[in-house]
């Protein structure tokens, strides 16, 4: 049974009673009423037929919740994933065409299978490749691009950006619908987040559109949406060349969509008081994407706003998601004609209202105060994402590469200090605090890093350079407490260093050597016994030994870390 629950987390759901079903149905109704108009709006952002946004809110959400560890997440269309779909397919096909739809389906299948594979081999740690500054910068840049793409429709501009700059033409009724809807969405969200404002605004705008003859006056409307269930089928083979062009976008969609999931799943797990199972969520979210592709839709993800609304509405288990799927199903079968007269600017307002929260300039300012290096990485990621549009994935790739380069630089330049005794009795950076050496003719150093191939050269050079600058050195003390790991390169450096110091008749003291480091050193014979090599269990033992030196201070044994 435990093994089955590992692969089928839904088996751990509580058996529903009347009270639970009532609360879960209410939460599901709240989310379902929000996801229907959002799905339609996000489908337009992805360049897909509008009904596919509803398709992406049904079977993918159901499959994802059945196989995910985080059961209170709302899976379906999201603004960021839809923007990535549009950006990935631009230049490969015309938006809304059969080829575009086919390629979007392939993106869903490929990214879904990638997530399932990563989850099965427990590679959820790949999430750590994208640092918080990179993700923050990318999402904010994506938010700017999303808003920019929706502005013409939102403001009733007719024509493209070039036409607007040359001779702006504004459809007054469209601008009124768009701006009024946006203002109401923002105000109601701040006033009462759980209120189904999106659906009510959509219905009200449809009624006003019919009463005012909005379509007849030249306004853009949703139009007819097919009712009935989607047909499950495999997409047409696009050819190896086209498939190769989809690999990089697939990688970015896989990574970014799971980062979206992580932001919601961590909150869900913390509130539930449990550990987040990222690998199982990879499997569940991946299967959801596969289901989206088989439904003829685009890649799905976990929506932070809808997941927060689900929690706010009182959802306790995955039954709430089942209820929301039922709501979407009923709407698809019975109420799609209601959406026909909804003005297009209202859909744009829904998208803009959803992504306004992504743009947080204060986050970049705060980052600059914390770390200018990481702030520079974030700023560059932001700029490249904007400049590379529609190829947004170059922004993510550039950010990841810069973050990894910064990480490698830090690993290759470990903090190595000469320690001295501080007046408070602790051992600190001698040069930073302007402290005297622990004893004459003695060099005491500490490296705050693992001793491996990345740091070994720096470690060895620090000792050699000190010996060259101070030929009278008689004692070298290595405070090894911060060294938690050593590899073959580190072992070779220690062995070579011991041999060199013995030739120079210099005593090497090593204190605080941890067992995972000491054991491989002894196996390799890198700690030869003799009077010139002295091991001390703690730094206090080392200091006591130094106190017994003829030229050492009498009270040095009182120092401790």
Labels describing this entry:
disordered C terminus; 22 helices; alpha/beta; Transcription Regulator spoIIAA; 561 residues
What separation lies between the terminal Cα atoms? 50 Å
Strand content: 5-15%
Q: How helical, in percent, are the residues? A: 55-70%
Please identify the structural class as seen in this structure: alpha/beta
Poorly predicted segments: 550-561
Beta strand count: 8
Number of helices: 22
The arrangement of helices and strands along the chain is HHHHEHHHHHHHHEHHHHHHEEEHEHEHEH
Radius of gyration: 31 Å
Q: How do the strands of the widest beta sheet line up side by side?
A: 4-3-5-6-7-8
Let me know the largest β-sheet. Answer: 6 strands, mixed
- Rounded mean pLDDT is 89
Number of domains: 2
Spatial shape = elongated
Summarize the structure.
With 561 residues, the protein is of the alpha/beta class.
Can you describe this structure?
- Helices cover 58% and strands 6% of the residues.
- Residues 550-561 have low confidence and may be disordered.
- It has helices at residues 2-7, 18-45, 51-55, 59-67, 79-89, 98-120, 132-154, 161-166, 172-191, 197-212, 240-272, 278-294, 304-312, 319-334, 344-355, 361-370, 372-387, 393-412, 456-469, 488-503, 515-523, 539-547, and strands at residues 74-76, 301-303, 416-421, 427-429, 442-447, 475-479, 507-511, 533-536.
- The protein has two domains: 22-160 and 170-223 and 252-358, no CATH class; 416-558, STAS domain (Transcription Regulator spoIIAA).
- Helix 2 packs across helix 10 (197-212), helix 6 (98-120) packs across helix 11 and helix 9 runs parallel beside helix 15 (344-355).
- It has 561 residues and is of the alpha/beta class.
């Amino acid at each position: 049974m435990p093994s089955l629950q590992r692969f089928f987390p839904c088996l751990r759901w509580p058996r529903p009673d009347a009270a639970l079903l009532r609360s879960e149905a209410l939460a599901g109704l709240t989310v379902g009423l929000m996801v229907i108009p959002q799905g339609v709006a996000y489908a337009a952002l992805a360049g897909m037929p509008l009904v596919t946004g509803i398709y992406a809110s049904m079977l993918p959400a159901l499959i994802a919740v059945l196989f995910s560890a985080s059961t209170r997440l709302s899976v379906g269309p999201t603004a960021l994933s839809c923007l990535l779909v549009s950006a990935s397919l631009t230049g490969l096909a015309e938006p809304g065409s059969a080829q575009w739809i086919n390629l979007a389906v392939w993106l869903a299948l490929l990214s879904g299978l990638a997530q399932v594979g990563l989850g099965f081999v427990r590679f959820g740690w790949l999430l750590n490749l994208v640092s918080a500054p990179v993700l923050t910068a990318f999402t904010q840049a994506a938010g700017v691009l999303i808003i920019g793409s929706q502005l013409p429709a939102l403001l009733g501009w007719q024509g493209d950006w070039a036409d607007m700059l040359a001779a702006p033409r504004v459809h007054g009724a469209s601008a009124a619908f768009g701006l009024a809807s946006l203002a109401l969405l923002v105000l109601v969200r701040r006033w009462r987040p759980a209120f189904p404002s999106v659906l009510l605004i959509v219905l009200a705008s449809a009624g006003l559109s019919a009463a005012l003859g909005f379509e007849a006056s030249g306004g853009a409307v949703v139009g007819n949406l097919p009712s009935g269930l989607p047909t499950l089928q495999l997409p047409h083979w696009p050819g190896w060349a086209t498939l190769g062009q989809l690999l990089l976008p697939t990688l970015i969609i896989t990574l970014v969509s799971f980062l979206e999931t992580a932001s919601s799943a961590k909150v869900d797990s913390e509130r539930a008081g449990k550990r987040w199972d990222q690998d199982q969520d990879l499997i569940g979210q991946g299967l959801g994407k596969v289901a989206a592709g088989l439904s003829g839709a685009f890649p799905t993800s976990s929506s932070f706003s809808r997941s927060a609304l689900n929690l706010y509405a009182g959802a306790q288990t995955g039954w709430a998601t089942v209820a929301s799927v039922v709501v979407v199903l009923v709407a698809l079968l019975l109420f799609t004609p209601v959406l026909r007269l909804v003005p297009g600017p209202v859909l744009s307002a829904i998208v803009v209202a959803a992504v306004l929260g992504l743009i947080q300039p204060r986050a970049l300012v705060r980052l600059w105060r914390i770390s200018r290096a990481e702030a520079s990485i974030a700023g560059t990621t932001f700029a490249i994402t904007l400049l590379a549009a529609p190829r947004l994935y170059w922004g993510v790739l550039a950010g990841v590469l810069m973050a990894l380069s910064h990480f490698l630089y830090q690993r290759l330049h470990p903090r190595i200090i000469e320690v001295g005794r501080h007046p408070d009795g602790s051992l600190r950076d001698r040069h930073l605090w302007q402290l005297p050496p622990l004893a004459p003719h003695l060099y005491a150093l500490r490296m705050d890093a693992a001793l491996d191939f990345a740091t070994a050269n720096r470690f060895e050079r620090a000792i050699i350079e000190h010996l060259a600058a101070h030929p009278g050195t008689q004692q070298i003390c290595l405070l090894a407490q911060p060294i938690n790991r050593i590899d073959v390169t580190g072992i070779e450096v220690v062995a070579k260093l011991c041999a060199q110091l013995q030739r120079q008749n210099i005593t090497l003291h090593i204190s605080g050597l941890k067992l995972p480091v000491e054991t491989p050193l002894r196996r390799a014979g890198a700690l030869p016994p003799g009077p010139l090599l002295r091991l001390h269990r703690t730094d206090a033992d080392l200091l006591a030994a130094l106190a017994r030196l003829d030229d050492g201070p009498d009270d040095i044994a009182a120092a401790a870390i």
